[in-house]
């Protein structure tokens, strides 16, 4: 084999094995998750009271000790305070970093996930060398390097209804740095039941928001959001994207609120929501409604007296990062392996890629027709014309009278299902010729993991 060909073959094999390793690591994380039992929570004794700062502590914290609002009294409170960080991702990393460097006595770190390369631009406690390792272990190691006096307690598991109350009760303040709605309700209800303040933030694309729930008679998450949003309207960072510095800003603000609560200064955003628009450089604070007397969690006659099945309540998963939607029946879907067989057979069909242009710029299958889901959603005339033409052209090779099969693909297999629904409704409304349409399960990321190791994962 010529040297060049051998290089290409070896590169393809390395890429294939890396993809296999990455999917193996994800399976390992899922297996670890399934294997855990609530009673395995490490017991932690309460932090002992502290009467004075050591010489080293005075030197280390001198710049914040001279702040009259904090002083020695506040620093001693920090040293005996504990904060539970739910999620060691884009928000949890900067939050934990600043809490540790400010001298908070104990940090509980809970996360079920492992470090991936795509985490590194914003999950600043993790490094390249730790890819594949549990996020809580990587974060704890980083934090110990930063401040060895801070006790870090890693919980390499998901916060679940079985564990949440026990964990939350062990800490003075809770920070929700998770990325999904079921966990938000779970953390809220656990905080209400355990009587703990909750510093909550979220970030997506160039925007973020932060507030403090259930602090000193203020509203809880359920007061503001009594019902979860429809699952299909919620986007995560993997789908919508996020700029690392945006989660950094929000994580730092969360750290600030948690520190003020722990030091006895009180938070700024109880009963109000700070909105951050990074593109315009705007901060805006809006008042939230006050505590609801009829709130299911913190109201006068609460119905949430125990933690529930939050995934059922929200109709979405708390740990499945792809948030796989199930909009279609199995007959309306095709696996990447079956699609590859069809492609290899040369059978006439149309592959429709419905990702946004920005993702198509990253990578694409060359034979796919690209029409973004958004264009289909708004019945864009140009796009429908393009689709109609492609169908007519493709039909020339197909059997007489048979509809040209369309396969719809996206990144993870959620948008493709929405697109199939739209195409079906367009056919029903006779806006498109009759067609048979299926989506490709798992999308291009399944293609990269199972079919073509050289195809980029993003
Ligand atoms: N119920 C839960 N228990 C523990 N950790 C959770 C729970 N829900 C979410 N998390 C964690 O919260 C973190 C959220 O951070 P972030 O969204 O920045 O990371 P990510 O999910 O790794 O990102 P990406 O979406 O890019 O893959 C994740 O590390 C996730 O594992």
Automatic annotation (TrEMBL):
Plays a central role in 2-thiolation of mcm(5)S(2)U at tRNA wobble positions of cytosolic tRNA(Lys), tRNA(Glu) and tRNA(Gln). Also essential during biosynthesis of the molybdenum cofactor. Acts by mediating the C-terminal thiocarboxylation of sulfur carriers URM1 and MOCS2A. Its N-terminus first activates URM1 and MOCS2A as acyl-adenylates (-COAMP), then the persulfide sulfur on the catalytic cysteine is transferred to URM1 and MOCS2A to form thiocarboxylation (-COSH) of their C-terminus. Gene3D superfamilies: NAD(P)-binding Rossmann-like Domain, Rhodanese-like domain. GO terms for biological process: Mo-molybdopterin cofactor biosynthetic process; protein urmylation; tRNA wobble position uridine thiolation. The lineage of its organism: Eukaryota, Metazoa, Chordata, Craniata, Vertebrata. Disulfide bonds join 314-322. In the N-terminal section; belongs to the HesA/MoeB/ThiF family. UBA4 subfamily. ATP binds at residues 90, 111, 135, 179-180. One of its GO terms (cellular component) is cytosol. Its EC number is 2.7.7.80, 2.8.1.11. This is Adenylyltransferase and sulfurtransferase MOCS3.
